[in-house]
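quick q for whoever's on today - can somebody do inverse folding on this one?? i tried earlier but teh output was garbage lol. C-alpha cells:
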C-alpha cells in the first residue's frame, strides 16, 4: 500500500514508480502502446497533488492525501485502458460529495437534495426530520444491506411525496440553487472538458434529483457539456411549473447502477445544445472500460449493469477517515482523503490515452 501525504506542494510517490517500472518491464510490447517503459513512466507521472484546504470557520487545515493499496494492479489497469483507447472508455460518477465538495467555507456542503427549499417552511421541516431519522441508518454498520435498502426506499418515497404535496415549483428549484453553498471540487470543469475533447461520455449517477443537478451545472459551471448524461430521479412538472410526479423507478444510494440507464437524459437536450453528438444506451454499453468516481461504498455498484472489462475505481473519503480508511482502501483502486480536489483524477485521466500518437 502506498500512502502519500504531506506538508505542501506536489510529491512523487517513489514506491509506486518503482513498482510500475518493474511491472512494465515484464509486459510484452503488444500490451503496452508506448515506445519504452521509461517514456510511459514519464507520461504517467504518478503524482500526488497536495492541496491544503483551509477551514475558514474554525481555522483548521486538512491535508489531501491519496491511498493506493495495490499499485501493481492499478498499473495493469492503466495499461489495459490505454491499449483499448478512448473509444472504449466511459466515466461513471456520483454527484454529491464526489463531483461536489464535502466542505464549503468550513461547513458541511449542501447536497443536491439538501439545498432544496420548497417555499413552504412546514414541508422543509418535514423533509429535514426525515433526514435526521434515516441518514444515520444509511451509514449504520450493523443493519443488513437488505434491510437498509428497504429503509432507503421508504425514505426516498416519503421525501418525494412531500415534495409533491408541498407544491414544489421549478422556480423554487432555481432559487434554491442560486441561494445554496453547493460547490464543485476544484478541477471538475477541467475534467469534463478533457473528456469532452475525446468524446468520452460521462454518466452522473445520483440518488438526488436530476432537475436540481442540471440546474447546479447551469449555474455553477456556466457551460453545457454534450457528453454528460444524468441518471437520477427525474421530476414531471405541469404547464404551470408545479411538480406533479416522478418518472420511472426510484434511485437511492444503494441501487444506483446502469440498470437505471433508461432514466438518463442527455444534458445538452435540456440546455438547448442540440448540435453535439448524443450517447444512447447501446453505445454506452459498448464502452467496456470504466473510470468510476464515488464517495460511498454503494457507489461501486454503479457499474453493476455493465459487463465491463477493466474498471478503475476512485473513492473520495471525505470524513471519518480513521474509521473508514481500511474499508475504502480495500474497495477502491485509489482513495483520495480529506475532501481532495479533482486534480489527481484529471492527471490520471490524461494518462489513459497517448497524446503523442504512440
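ok took a stab at it. sequence:
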Amino acid at each position: 500500500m502506498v500512502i502519500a501525504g504531506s506538508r505542501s506542494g506536489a510529491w512523487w510517490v517513489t514506491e509506486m514508480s518503482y513498482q510500475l517500472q518493474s511491472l512494465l518491464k515484464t509486459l510484452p510490447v503488444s500490451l503496452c502502446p508506448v515506445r519504452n517503459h521509461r517514456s510511459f513512466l514519464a507520461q504517467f507521472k504518478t503524482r500526488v497533488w497536495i492541496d491544503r484546504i483551509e477551514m475558514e470557520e474554525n481555522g483548521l487545515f486538512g491535508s489531501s492525501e491519496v491511498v493506493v493499496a495495490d499499485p501493481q494492479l492499478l498499473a495493469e489497469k492503466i495499461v489495459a485502458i490505454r491499449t483499448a483507447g478512448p473509444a472504449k472508455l466511459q466515466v461513471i460518477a456520483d454527484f454529491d460529495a464526489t463531483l461536489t465538495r464535502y466542505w464549503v467555507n468550513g461547513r458541511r456542503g449542501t447536497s443536491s437534495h439538501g439545498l432544496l427549499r420548497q417555499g413552504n417552511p412546514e414541508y422543509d421541516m418535514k423533509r429535514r426530520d426525515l433526514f435526521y431519522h434515516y441518514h444515520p441508518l444509511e451509514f449504520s454498520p450493523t443493519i443488513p444491506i437488505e434491510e437498509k435498502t428497504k429503509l432507503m426506499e421508504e425514505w426516498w418515497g416519503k421525501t418525494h411525496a412531500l415534495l409533491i404535496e408541498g407544491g414544489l415549483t421549478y422556480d423554487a428549484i432555481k432559487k434554491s440553487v442560486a441561494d445554496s453553498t453547493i460547490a464543485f471540487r476544484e478541477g471538475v470543469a477541467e475534467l469534463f472538458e478533457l473528456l469532452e475533447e475525446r468524446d468520452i461520455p460521462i454518466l452522473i449517477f445520483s440518488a438526488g434529483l436530476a432537475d436540481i443537478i442540471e440546474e447546479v451545472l447551469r449555474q455553477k459551471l456556466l457551460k453545457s457539456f454534450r457528453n454528460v448524461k444524468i441518471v437520477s430521479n427525474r421530476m414531471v412538472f405541469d404547464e404551470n411549473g408545479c411538480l406533479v410526479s416522478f418518472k420511472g423507478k426510484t434511485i437511492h444510494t444503494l441501487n444506483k447502477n446502469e440498470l437505471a440507464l433508461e432514466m438518463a437524459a442527455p444534458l445538452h437536450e435540456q440546455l438547448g445544445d442540440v448540435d453535439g453528438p448524443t450517447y444512447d444506451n447501446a453505445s454506452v454499453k459498448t464502452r467496456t472500460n470504466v473510470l468510476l468516481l464515488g464517495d460511498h461504498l454503494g457507489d461501486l455498484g454503479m457499474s453493476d449493469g455493465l459487463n465491463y472489462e477493466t474498471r478503475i475505481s476512485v473513492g473520495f473519503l471525505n470524513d471519518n477517515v480513521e474509521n473508514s480508511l481500511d474499508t475504502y482502501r480495500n474497495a477502491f483502486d485509489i482513495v483520495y482523503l480529506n475532501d481532495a480536489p479533482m486534480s489527481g483524477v484529471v492527471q490520471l485521466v490524461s494518462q489513459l490515452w497517448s497524446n503523442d500518437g504512440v
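fwiw The longest helix spans residues 145-165. also Confidence is low (pLDDT under 50) at residues 5-19, 26-37, 39-63, 265-277. so keep that in mind when u check it
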